[in-house]
Recover the amino acids of this structure.
């Protein structure tokens, strides 16, 4: 099994910054793309940003220029630097990784973290 553990959420005033971290652990065979999603109350979960193993990034339009996704040197970690936060960024943020475990190395699955709350006050 592969586990994802997120950290870094919290309460911040509008205009402030937060940095989310996510680390994959367990019986990892490979980790490919990683990303961050968010879900606000009453809304569907949406992609915020993702990054490939080669470093190609993709951002949701409303966060472009404010958020930056990056991966750690070990490639099993992913970060989301969030600047100029707005109240509408308030949501539970989830880390996702696509990869495989050592028991079934040829099969890719989507693994999810437990989520971390980000609250931006106006």
């Amino acid at each position: 099994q592969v586990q994802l553990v997120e950290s870094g959420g919290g309460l911040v005033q509008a205009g402030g910054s937060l940095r989310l971290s996510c680390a994959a652990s367990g019986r990892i065979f490979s980790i490919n793309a990683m990303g961050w999603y968010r879900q606000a109350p009453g809304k569907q979960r949406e992609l915020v940003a993702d990054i490939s193993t080669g470093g190609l990034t993709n951002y949701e339009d409303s966060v472009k220029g404010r958020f930056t996704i990056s991966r750690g040197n070990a490639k099993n970690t992913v970060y989301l630097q969030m600047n100029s936060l707005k109240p509408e960024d308030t949501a539970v943020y989830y880390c996702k990784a696509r990869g495989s475990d050592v028991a079934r190395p040829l099969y890719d699955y989507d693994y999810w973290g437990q989520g971390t709350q980000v609250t931006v006050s106006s």
Notes: The chain has a mean pLDDT of 95. The first strand starts at residue 2 and ends at 7. The CA atoms of residues 23 and 77 lie 4 Å apart.
